[in-house]
Write a structure and sequence with these properties.
The complex is a heterodimer of chains A (400) and B (406).
Chain A: H1 17-28, E1 34-35, H2 47-58, H3 71-85, E2 94-97, H4 100-111, E3 117-122, H5 127-134, E4 138-143, H6 154-160, E5 165-171, H7 183-194, E6 200-204, H8 220-223, E7 231-236, E8 249-252, H9 255-266, H10 274-285, H11 290-309, E9 325-326, H12 347-358, E10 360-361, E11 363-364, E12 374-377, H13 382-397
Parallel strand pairs in A: 1-10, 3-4, 3-5, 5-6, 6-7
Antiparallel strand pairs in A: 2-8, 7-8, 9-12, 11-12
Chain B: H1 5-12, H2 18-31, E1 38-39, H3 51-62, H4 75-89, E2 98-101, H5 104-115, E3 121-126, H6 131-138, E4 142-147, H7 158-164, E5 169-175, H8 187-198, E6 204-208, H9 224-227, E7 235-240, E8 253-256, H10 259-272, H11 278-289, H12 293-314, E9 329-330, H13 351-362, E10 364-365, E11 367-368, E12 378-381, H14 386-401
Parallel strand pairs in B: 1-10, 3-4, 3-5, 5-6, 6-7
Antiparallel strand pairs in B: 2-8, 7-8, 9-12, 11-12
Classes of the chains: A alpha/beta (400), B alpha/beta (406).
Chain lengths: 400, 406
């Protein structure tokens, strides 16, 4: 009897490990490495949030809480949903978990049986298909290319739905492309979904505070309230409030599903850290003014990166609406050879050569189920970004 | 939408919520006014998290240790865990043999998720922590119970264990000291268990030692792994900081075992929650590294409370109570009360009925033994101040004296 269960074989081996291992090794060897592979803000957790955590620690709020989150935090989340998105989730329709990832995990484990399909538009965060697979479901990857702004069209959605479809994933703004759906685009998708009453929607809105050029956030239940009864609206504190390490994600969903997710969570991790919950309470209900400054900073960095990458031969760089990533195409470089003799066969060989020859770490698009592209994070200071983009330009200019 | 089978299986297990339900009912009663409710239903220490641990957490928050931590744990905490195993258990684990999770519960979940195929069996001594059979069933496995009778002090008998192991057995779970009975195993008992396990080389052993520091016997805690290191290649130790250092809310547990198991468990965790809260990890490292004197103070307090509560229980008509070796529970039998009627008119035909009547009529919350697989018993937590424990016992004594055969 082999030790490891078959379900683990369905998980793709980590695509990013090769890159991060190489980057670490080069750094350890004294190379000057600029990492643009981070999926987290370079900002620090705001002071008022830290202070709230410290107060909670000193007051002894260090005991088990309700599994689904403290009543105060669930009320604050309901308030946030209402204020930011016009959503009317009650505290009973809200669950707090250890990161947005656990929301996905709970929802999929609570609902997927073998044979169930989950439609996942690509480029996508790799955890979506992995979690679906772990829960015995079948990921159905639907590529959405730059011609559609990396967004799922109503026709593509309708074509992908089968009698086995249980979930459709939406991620807006998207990791890795930064693409954000407008209210009209969501309405058009909702129009298709209204015709398929057995299909549920998982909308990952975790980047929705990071939107640029005046683009307004929109989420599907807000534009089509009739989908409320079969949607999980997920969000969290990690990206908007620079709280990645604190591990706070949350969702609004119909009570029956929340209860099922809560029971699953009660058997896997119980409540998320009581201290983190106190921190999140302050983040969500305290002053929000600092967000505008953070967004302005990200926007300026985005413009620097997009501007500079558009001058690199062989790259095609879109301008993202949100999040803190750019996802340029490198297809114009395929078949060429780098300055130091590496053959650029695909996105993975591109990022490996870029790392080895120029000391810039980025993530290949195949890691997001979308080859021919690579993801650059601009969650780092502008000087480093300028230097990194110069190196990318130089790398591309040297290709023959 | 219909929930998946694994979720439905959980929903059917109402007992899982017994602890929380009872405590919740108690809180509801308290909010409704009237006599103060004393809850002995929860499995967590009433001590505060120690001062130096609190300080370390605040420092970490201020210093910006708030980024995604590495999946398997921060280097500082993993090193502290390795040092703990070396210092306390004489065990030498490599970095790749340690996983930090969100509580010991997640370590359990990861291990089972990574290894259970449908139909695989998991041997579970009974009475048990409800999460063992619940998690096994949720993941498609079959629990196989080994009864640990009160007559044996609820201790696990090696012969009984041997009888439960078969060709489909994947895991044996050992919880020493035990929740809810506090039973542990002396060295001879552990050696006998090790001998049984040696005869079944296909079986993996999960040693849940979360209460390891709360042992009151003259023999201090020995890990099975320390006594039988030849079993290490198929043994996972589960422990954490929740009970030892009064850090239940911080959510830090850890597992130590063979690298390939830890790697598979890490894949599961990587898809569920990623790394545990960074600030909690800093706190846990400080707890493991710091002055361990606080642990002795808590242990002595729990021992004294155990003596107090067991004496009080033994004086109640219809109640028997074995003396627990460790943890912070008492697991009295209320067999002598079955068939009687409470002062409020409720027929006591089960431990659940007893617990309900005790709560309604005397405002004392305990958990019925059926939640732990053995009836008719109750689990009382001693994680409450002396005055509260005394008052709870006084009320329960009055309740028992008021039972009639009408």
């Amino acid at each position: 009897m082999s030790l490891i269960a078959a379900r683990l074989n369905r998980i793709s081996p980590s695509q990013t490990i090769a890159i991060s291992t190489k980057a670490r090794a080069l750094k350890a060897a004294g190379r000057d490495i600029i990492s643009l592979s981070a999926g987290e803000p370079d900002f620090d957790t705001p002071d008022n949030v830290k202070q709230a955590a410290i107060r909670a620690i000193e007051r002894g709020e260090t005991k088990y809480t309700d599994v689904a989150g403290t009543p105060a935090l669930r009320r604050a989340i309901a308030g946030r949903f209402a204020h930011d998105s016009g959503l009317d989730y009650t505290p009973e329709e809200i669950i707090v978990s250890t990161g947005g990832k656990q929301i996905i995990y709970n929802a999929m484990l609570a609902t997927l049986e073998a044979g169930d399909e989950a439609i996942i538009p690509a480029p996508c965060w790799v955890s979506y298909p992995d979690i679906v697979s772990l829960a015995d479901g079948t990921p159905v990857i639907v590529p959405c290319g730059p011609n559609s702004g990396f967004k799922l069209s109503p026709d593509a959605l309708a074509d992908a739905i089968t009698p086995q479809t249980k979930w459709v994933f939406l991620n807006s703004p998207n990791n890795p492309t930064g693409a954000a759906y407008s209210a009209d685009e969501l309405r058009a998708l909702a129009h298709v979904l209204l015709r398929h009453s057995g299909v549920w929607i998982f909308t990952d809105d975790i980047y929705d505070k990071l939107l640029y050029d005046g683009v307004q956030a929109a989420t599907i239940v807000q534009v089509e309230p009739r989908l409320r009864e079969r949607t999980v609206t997920m969000n969290g504190c990690s990206k908007a409030y620079a709280m990645t390490g604190w591990r706070i994600g949350y969702a609004g969903a119909p009570v029956a599903l929340i209860k099922a997710m809560e029971k699953l969570q009660s058997q896997s991790t119980s409540n998320t850290s009581s201290i983190s919950q106190a921190a999140a309470l302050e983040a969500l209900s305290g002053p929000q003014e600092f967000i505008a400054g953070m967004v302005a900073t990200y926007q300026a960095r985005r413009d620097v990166v997009v501007g500079m990458l558009r001058e690199a031969p062989g790259l095609d760089c879109h301008k993202p609406d949100g999040a803190f990533y750019v996802f340029p195409s490198m297809q114009g470089c395929i078949g060429k050879t780098s300055g130091k003799g590496a053959k650029i066969e695909d996105d993975e060989s591109f990022v490996i050569a870029l790392l080895e020859e120029e000391g810039v770490a980025a993530v290949h698009g195949s890691a997001f189920a979308f080859p021919g592209h690579f993801r650059v994070s601009y969650a780092t200071d502008t000087d480093s970004l300028r230097e990194a983009c110069s190196r990318i330009q130089r790398f591309c200019r040297a290709l023959r | 939408m219909e929930m998946a089978q694994r979720a439905r299986a959980l929903q059917a297990q109402a007992q899982a919520q017994a602890q929380t339900q009872t405590h919740g009912q108690a809180e509801g009663l308290a909010r409704g006014g009237g006599r103060e409710v004393i809850s002995l239903a929860l499995g967590e220490p009433d001590f505060p998290t120690p001062g130096p641990v609190v300080e370390a957490a605040c420092r970490a928050a201020r210093a910006g240790e708030t980024r995604y931590p590495p999946l398997t744990g921060t280097p500082a905490l993993k090193q502290a865990v390795r040092d703990k195993f070396a210092r306390e258990n004489g065990l030498d684990f490599a970095d790749g043999e340690i996983l930090v999770g969100n509580g010991g519960k997640q370590i359990l979940f990861n291990a089972l998720m990574a290894t259970l195929e449908p139909g695989a069996e998991v041997v579970i001594p009974r009475p048990y922590w409800a999460s063992y059979p619940l998690t096994v069933r949720m993941l498609g496995g079959t629990p196989v119970f080994v009864d640990c009778p009160e007559a044996d002090g609820f201790r696990l008998d090696a012969g009984a264990l041997a009888g439960a192991i078969g060709p489909r057995t994947r895991w044996v779970i050992l919880n020493l000291p035990c929740n809810p009975t506090g039973a542990s195993c002396d060295e001879a008992g552990l050696r006998a268990i090790a001998d049984v396990l040696r005869r079944h080389p296909h079986v993996w052993i999960l040693c849940d030692e979360i209460y390891e520091h709360l042992l009151f016997t003259s023999q201090s805690h020995r890990s099975l792994a320390s006594l039988a290191p030849d079993l290490l290649p198929r043994l996972l130790i589960l422990s954490g900081v929740s009970k030892t250092y009064a850090m239940t809310g911080w959510r830090i547990g850890f597992g130590a075992g063979p690298a390939r198991l830890i790697a598979a468990m890490s894949v599961v965790q990587g898809n569920a929650t990623s790394g545990a809260c960074s600030v909690s990890q800093a706190a846990a490292a400080a707890a493991l590294r710091g002055d361990q004197g606080v642990v002795g103070v808590m242990r002595d307090t729990y021992r004294a409370r155990r003596d107090r509560i067991v004496a009080a229980l033994r004086a109640m008509p219809g109640v028997r109570c074995a003396l627990p070796d460790g943890a912070f529970y008492a697991y009295p039998s209320i067999a002598g009360c079955i068939g009687r009627t409470s002062p409020g008119g409720r027929l006591i035909d089960s431990d659940k009925a007893f617990a309900l009547a005790l709560l309604e009529e005397q405002h004392v919350a305990v958990v019925q033994g059926s939640a732990f697989g053995m009836s008719p018993y109750l689990r009382l937590s001693t994680a409450a101040a002396d005055a509260a424990l005394d008052e709870a016992c006084r009320r329960m004594d009055a309740f028992c004296r008021g039972l009639t055969l009408a």
